[in-house]
Specification:
10-stranded mixed β-sheet, alpha/beta
């Protein structure tokens, strides 16, 4: 979770190294721009990002087919708004899975329909619940919803675990904590809650913010919580893992000067806009097209798509213009290493 998996795709890497156009390997995307909670740490919890936009179901299914056809391997429904508020979520995910894509979803777990949870779990490779509180009282402070809502989320997680085992599904179920100072006292209680619920993992991740939209909640010294991290990790055992993303937390400066990772991992807004990455959502210089209005195949094959990737690689100052917690950072580190050929490479 703290690295990358590019080296398992040597064919696509070889194409890129030769300068050939490539299809993305993986896509992060939203399918809505609305949400039913107000997480303190969310850098989209601002009025200009909270819209009622969704990607229509037919456009989403068309996108899944296009993505699979051009060689995309996986799609994560992770961003912008809350995906379970999409009226066609379950049907679309079923159709997407039929294309052969590996699908995943991140959710706050509030609006999951228990009667369709088995369908969703059958369609995805993993599901991740965002939960930065281990008690109803703290949940109210962190996510601005009632303790009863917290209890509903916990029950939905418990049901997901039960369905996974009853149906012998090959799906990974996790809980994610986005760490800010206000919820640091929940690190160990959440690790204990994850173990009690029977999920596969609990992950503590860094807080991110866009360069253009700052919430001012970035923890400046994650090291101050090392004792809590170690106590949480001690809850690991059997099939259950507690993971602290220390590498991301401790990233102070990028070890590369160009961003090429967007060619392998572009991102899509909950309104359907295709961008090089989430840091530049709504910046028209990095807009590649809309999957609502266009075929994703045509977008990837188009001149604008290629010109945006070139602009990102050649014109963006990654040290000044890119946000904290860059999604493509580890990919970029690997690509920079590949492009910087050392002497005597044949002496392996």
């Amino acid at each position: 979770m703290d690295g990358h998996k590019l080296h398992w795709h040597p064919e696509r890497l070889a194409q890129w190294m030769k300068g050939e156009p490539i299809a993305p390997l993986y896509i992060d995307m939203g399918i809505t721009q609305t949400c039913n909670v107000a997480c303190r740490f969310c850098y989209y919890a601002v009025p200009q990002h909270r819209t009622k936009a969704i990607i229509p179901g037919d456009a989403l299914v068309r996108f899944f087919h296009d993505a699979a056809d051009i060689g995309v391997k996986a799609v994560g429904i992770l961003g912008d708004g809350e995906p379970t508020l999409h009226p066609d979520l379950y049907d679309c995910m079923n159709e997407g899975a039929k294309t052969g894509l590996d699908l995943a979803i991140a959710t706050n777990g509030v609006a999951l329909k228990q009667e369709r949870l088995a369908e969703l779990l059958s369609a995805v490779k993993w599901i991740r619940f965002t939960l930065s509180s281990a008690s109803g009282e703290n949940y109210k402070a962190m996510m601005d919803r009632s303790p009863k809502t917290f209890e509903r989320v916990v029950e939905n997680i418990r049901q997901a675990v039960a369905i996974k085992h009853a149906m012998n599904l090959d799906v990974t179920i996790g809980i994610q904590m986005v760490l800010i100072d206000l919820c640091a006292d929940q690190i160990v209680p959440l690790a204990e809650l994850g173990r009690e619920l029977g999920v596969d993992y609990f992950v503590v991740k860094q807080t991110s913010e866009r360069e253009t939209t700052r919430h001012g909640l970035i923890t400046r010294d994650y090291g101050q919580y090392e004792k809590e991290f170690l106590r949480a990790e001690a809850c690991s055992g059997g099939h259950y893992n507690v993971i602290v993303k220390r590498r991301k937390m401790n990233l102070s400066r990028r070890g590369y000067d160009q961003c090429h990772g967007c060619a392998f991992l572009p991102q899509i807004t909950g309104a359907g806009g295709v961008y090089s990455c989430g840091n530049f959502f709504n910046d028209q210089r990095f807009f590649m097209g809309s999957i609502v209005d266009e075929s994703f195949k045509d977008i990837v094959a188009g001149d604008r798509y290629r010109s945006v990737l070139e602009r990102v690689a050649n014109d963006v100052d990654v040290h000044a213009e890119c946000g904290i917690g860059c999604r493509q950072n580890e990919i970029n580190e690997h690509l920079a290493m590949l492009k910087s050929t050392p002497p005597h490479v044949n002496f392996i």
